[in-house]
Amino acid sequence: MSREQRVFLITGTVLLVSEIWKQYCLTFVLNGGTYQWWYFPFQLCSVPMYLCLPLAFIKGGKIRDSLLAFLSDYTLLSGVIVFLDTTGMHYGYMPLTIHSFLWHFLLIALGMYAGTRKRDRGMRSFIGATAVYLVCCILAEAFNLSFDRFDIINMFYINPHYYMGQIGFRELLRFLPNRAVIGLYILATVFGASLFHLFWFRSVHQR
Prior knowledge:
By secondary structure, this protein is mainly α.
């Protein structure tokens, strides 16, 4: 196993174990043993947990390039943008708040590490990364529509049954219907990730 593969294996394991601990604390420390679907681990910032472990066993090819591009573009975006509004990172249990901040710092480090790995940096890898993102959006919406009858659930913040609450986009609800704002939010995420992809592309060609 290469050094790169070991990095992804260790990172994926750390993310997975810490997420299990988080879910335990949310359920039994803060909510008296009742599971809170709002915290189901399938937000954009949760996806790297599911990708790092497979990356540890993929040595090359288009799938590896697409996953690395996702981490260096979409994951880095999610790690950085959350610090524009950190209200959702605070919990009534201080260790969980610390965990939330450390998690997002780790996402930034992971995205930067993935960005430095040798891979295809052209449009093909970005299209692959965007396909991963859109598939995750579809899965998130399936979770939303399947489970929100049991409790509040808003994976990827695109549940049409809840008004968009993301900073910058919630103000658009004064002018546009909620579903249109959700669509703009998805497009803006793709655009933001494309800027990171352009940065990595230019950084390689300027070496």
